[in-house]
Amino acid sequence: MRILIVEDDSSSAELIRTLIQKGFGDEEVFFEEAASFDEALSKVRDHFYDVCIVDYLLRARNGIELLEEIRGQGIEVPAVFLTGHGDEETAVRAMKAGASDYLIKGKFSARELCHSIRVSVEFHRKELALKESERRCAEMVQGAPDPIVVLDLEGKIIAFNPAMKEILGNKAQEVIGCRISDLNLVAADSVDSFLREFSLLQTGKARSPFELTLTDFRGQRFVMEANPRIFHRSEKETSFAVVFRDVTARVRAVTELEKTRDQYHQLLSAITSILIGIDADETISHWNALAEASLGIPRGEVLGKPLSACRVLWDIENLRNALAEARESLKPVRVDDLVIRHRDSGQDVFRDYRESDQGSPGRVSGRADLRCGYYRPQTGGNEAPSCRTAIQDYF
Question: pLDDT tens for residues 288-339?
């Protein structure tokens, strides 16, 4: 450890050195001394020290003035302040000037002096680490492609990054100090949700991302995913950073997908065939009205359930093998003699619709194009449209 002792009295400087050596024991310590204000300032400016021990009286100047000058020049070094006077006013002035701790001459032991030195050095190291972390964080914020705004406890804007400036436009500097909810930045239909989330964030609770609409300086609206986080917290102040991610395209795509899905289900509902949707994991995803009527099973009993759990009287192994083959080959699969019976009557849904030319029940064959979701029962005779069905496989 490198220690600078700033003391104009050589005997006092020697006593301080002895106490430190005694307190640190076998630890390696290097000492330098300065007997005046100018000499101390020159040494601190040109050399590195882990800590300075600064006496209050320094001939024409004093230790408080030295600490103020060191801080004024941007030099960061922890300092333990020594004074022969026990008045509180001097101690407060020294701490405000940048002292890490202060001790009264003649009233501290080697152990107390070394403890003060260790605490001052450790606190300074943590403070430097925090500043470095904040510097890197600030660089990340400035370089982030997503818009970021920093708010104080009242929701007032205190900073923003270049990506946010593109949204604010030429009025960017005017928003500093303004509440974000009072600006036209947050769309009117999103203000209430933003205030609700921000009030929860003020209580210290971590919040999940939520969606809101921002309006840029041109009046263009963007759907944003807002991700609020505590940016800085100390005894004096707390600030929050809100990261906005443009999800306009995603929201539009989801809306279009839902619209297409609704249209698709409307189309499926209009099909005059039995239509059963089976997902890749063998979960039933669609069960149209004709399936309800023909099999005697309401859709609420089967939707979202696996094939094996459904109380449907069908040849499940034959169907399962066909589905597996269709998924693997991505080609139409022919299914012969697929039997599906009405739950209550036990009648074969396909066979009972058909009779051969001789008037006896015909042999029903099934053809399943599971890749395209098409299934049509067939016989060697004339096709009966009323017994057509479709089994759709989503994968």
Answer: 887 788 778 888 888 888 877 777 666 777 777 777 777 777 666 666 666 6
Q: Nearest CA to 306 among 318, 316, 291, 296?
A: 316
Question: What's the CATH architecture for 2-139?
Answer: 3-Layer(aba) Sandwich (3.40)
DSSP category for residue 362: P
Q: 14 phi and psi, to 5 degrees? A: -65, -40
Do 227 and 142 touch, CB atoms closer than 8 A? no
Give me the pLDDT at residue 51, please.
94
Structure tokens at 148: 């970021």
In this structure, the number of other CB atoms found within 10 A of the CB of residue 79 comes to: 27
pTM of the model: 0.45
Domain 271-394 falls under CATH 3.30.450: yes
Q: Does domain 144-250 have CATH number 3.30.450.20?
A: yes
What tokens appear for 255 in the block? 């809306």
Residue 339 host element (H or E) = none
Bridge-based pairing of strands 30-34 and 2-6 is parallel
Tokens (6 digits) for 141: 């914020």
